[in-house]
Amino acid sequence: MVEAERAERRVRRWRSVAEKQRIVEQTMEPGASVALVARAHGVNANQVFAWRRAFKSGELAEPVVPTTALLPVTVSAPCEEEIREPAAKQQQATVGAIHIELPGRAMISVERGADLTLVRSILESLRK
């Protein structure tokens, strides 16, 4: 008999946020019974009550997936100093900068020789 009880044991099922929301919405219909809706979906009624609380507080929502978007890039004209003197061109090879402007958010200038770890952490913080 003990073996029969083990065979009937339920396997924990993972449910998506959309599925949880659907179940919760069914319980909120007029005249709906949480226990009956839960039983129809094979879920414990206490779990459905927890989902209802999370739904009412706004915690039961699809996670926001960050998207990556392409940004327009403009290349500025070369400096006049580069055109005038070849010696200046050699100096420019060791000196350089990148300017990144995120309108309304930030303006970043990265000089040659900047700490790459620091630049990476700054750019990652702007993604949020």
Detail the poorly predicted runs: none
- Report the order of strands and helices: HHHHHHEEH
**Alpha-beta content class:** mainly alpha
Strand order of the largest sheet: 1-2
How far is the first residue's CA from the last residue's CA? 56 Å
**Coarse morphology:** elongated
What share of the residues does DSSP label as strand, in percent? 5-15%
Number of strands: 2
Describe this structure in words.
The protein is mainly α. It folds into 2 domains: 2-57, no CATH class; 80-127, no CATH class. The protein has 7 helices and 2 strands, in the order H-H-H-H-H-H-E-E-H. It has helices spanning 2-8, 17-27, 34-40, 45-57, 80-84, 86-94, 116-127, and strands at residues 97-102, 106-111. A two-stranded antiparallel sheet has the order 1-2. A hairpin with a 3-residue loop joins strand 1 (97-102) and strand 2 (106-111). It is elongated and about 75 Å long. The mean pLDDT is 79.
Compile the SSE list and pairings:
Blueprint: H1 2-8, H2 17-27, H3 34-40, H4 45-57, H5 80-84, H6 86-94, E1 97-102, E2 106-111, H7 116-127
Antiparallel strand pairs: 1-2
Helix pairs in contact: 2-4, 3-4
